[in-house]
């Protein structure tokens, strides 16, 4: 029995266009994957589907989205990952070989394993098995996951249908790859927008009592830092001011001053050069905050009135 693959070239092209356009939408990655799967399943006349992607270590297949699974199947699909070494099933075979699998009669197909029967319900009304297509999602020669779709009756897949399904898989792979590239740059874009906002505030006023909160708050966001200070010299008065983001004050109690002389703040203030040090810092300097070994000091000038340093510190990790 043949499936009701009622589609036209126009319908396929429309589906490709809608999938491609998802990259520019404000949806989350999982929402986009769900919409991709919905488009693929509905356009090609299937009834159910799943997209799984390899984790960063390429050790496990992780279920990302499913379509038309019942609650029990959904729970099973998301309850555990498929380990590439321990689990022998259709989807891990597709990942290992990079080659698609077509099941026209799952009831008699010898490639069905006990793991397949455990993780997926092939039965339709308890009397037969689904027919299925499972294709690799690849970037160049690297498999990044799979898309699998089921038809609810035993069927044959004409060559032109298989060719279209493989085209779908290739197109989906490209979209997922672009999503990942966009995600990698999303934080950089966010930081640039935050920096633009901070610069706008700085340009609107040069009074330290008005801008210090803006500078520190934005610096913490941009740098992903845990602690921050503004250490400024008022060139008109010859006095040193410190801001912790909440208030501007003279360090009359000598909380910071003794440490500043032996810190990267002093270096940046004297050389007007950005100074960065990680946990393996210069033994000739002392961190301002105990337990925050990763530091960065950025020289600042505000309308020639203030000369100072923006100081950020991290408890873990390094500044990149």
Characterise the protein shown here.
The chain has 320 residues and is of the alpha+beta class. The protein folds into 2 domains: 9-184, 2-Layer Sandwich (Beta-Lactamase), CATH 3.30.450; 205-314, Beta-Lactamase (2-Layer Sandwich), CATH 3.30.450.40. The protein is 39% helix and 23% strand. The chain contains 9 helices and 12 strands. Strands 3-2-1-6-5-4 form a 6-stranded antiparallel sheet, with helices on both faces. A 6-stranded antiparallel sheet has the order 9-8-7-12-11-10, sandwiched between helices. A hairpin with a 2-residue loop joins β5 and β6. The longest helix is centred in the middle third of the chain and has 46 residues, at 159-204. It starts with 8 loop residues before the first helix and ends in a 6-residue tail after the last strand. The model is unreliable at 122-128 (pLDDT under 50).
How many helix segments?
9
Secondary-structure element order, N to C: HHEEHEHEHEEHHEEEHHEEE
Shape: elongated
Mean pLDDT: 78
- The strand count comes to 12
Count of discrete structural domains: 2
The proportion of strand residues reads 15-25%
- Can you identify the CATH class of the largest domain? Alpha Beta
Which sheet architecture does the biggest sheet show?
Answer: 6 strands, antiparallel
The CATH architecture classification of the largest domain is 2-Layer Sandwich
Strand order of the largest sheet: 3-2-1-6-5-4
Measured distance between first and last alpha carbons: 59 Å
What is the third-level CATH name, the topology of the largest domain?
Answer: Beta-Lactamase
Radius of gyration: 29 Å
Which blocks of ≥5 consecutive residues have pLDDT under 50?
122-128
Global structural class: alpha+beta
CATH homolog superfamily of the largest domain? GAF domain
């Amino acid at each position: 029995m043949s499936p009701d693959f009622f589609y036209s070239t126009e319908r396929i092209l429309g589906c490709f266009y809608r999938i491609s356009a998802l990259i520019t939408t404000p949806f989350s990655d999982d929402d986009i994957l769900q919409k991709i799967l919905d488009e693929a399943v509905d356009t090609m006349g299937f009834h159910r589907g799943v997209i799984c992607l390899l984790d960063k270590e390429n050790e496990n297949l992780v279920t990302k989205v499913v379509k038309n699974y019942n609650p029990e199947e959904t729970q099973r699909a998301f309850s555990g990952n498929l380990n590439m070494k321990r689990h022998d099933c259709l989807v891990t075979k597709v990942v290992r070989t990079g080659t698609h699998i077509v099941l026209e009669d799952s009831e008699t197909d010898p490639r069905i394993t006990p793991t397949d029967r455990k993780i997926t319900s092939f039965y339709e009304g308890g009397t037969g098995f689904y027919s299925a297509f499972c294709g690799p999602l690849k970037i160049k020669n690297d498999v990044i996951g799979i898309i699998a779709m089921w038809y609810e009756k035993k069927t044959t897949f004409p060559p032109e249908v298989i060719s279209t399904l493989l085209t779908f898989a290739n197109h989906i792979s490209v979209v997922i790859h672009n999503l990942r590239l966009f995600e990698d740059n999303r934080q950089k874009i966010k930081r640039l927008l935050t920096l633009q906002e901070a610069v706008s505030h700085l340009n609107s006023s040069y009074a330290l009592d008005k801008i210090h909160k803006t500078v520190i708050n934005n610096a913490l966001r941009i740098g992903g830092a845990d602690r921050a200070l503004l250490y400024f010299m008022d060139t008109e008065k010859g006095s040193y001011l410190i801001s912790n983001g909440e208030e501007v004050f003279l360090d009359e109690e000598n909380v910071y001053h003794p440490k500043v002389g032996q810190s990267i703040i002093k270096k940046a203030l004297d050389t007007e050069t950005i100074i960065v040090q990680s946990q393996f810092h210069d033994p000739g300097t002392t961190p301002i905050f105990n337990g925050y070994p990763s530091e960065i000091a950025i020289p600042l000038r505000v309308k020639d009135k203030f000369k100072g340093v923006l100081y950020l510190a991290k408890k873990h990790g390094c500044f990149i």
